[in-house]
Give the backbone structure.
Amino acid sequence: MSGAAIHDPARFKDRKSPKKTRPLGEPYVRMTDDQKVCWEEYRSELPWLNSSHRPLLRLACIWTAKMDEVDFGVSATQALSSILSKLGATPVDETKVNHAEDDDEDPADRFFGRSH
């Protein structure tokens, strides 16, 4: 919203979504039952998560499960908010997630004659 992309369009020009990622997979074995429930909730609500998100998702599950157990202070709220932001799990950050169905074809290939 800062206008940085308009001011400097080349800033995000070469940014690409990762290809050939593995699925998110099952929760970590040592997670608690409550944390595993959170994992499944996030998995269904954030379908773009993949194996590279596992460590951050584990942290999100730990903090989310703790919300029901203890008084959740400002620092913990900020930590969870930051993790969720990095996962693209906030309304603003979700707009930055590439939801493309087919990432194999680069539209620029039509113009520059590159073959796969």
About this structure: The first helix runs from residue 4 to 7. The mean pLDDT is 80. Helices lie at 4-7, 33-45, 54-67, 74-86, 91-94, 108-112. The two ends are 35 Å apart (CA to CA).
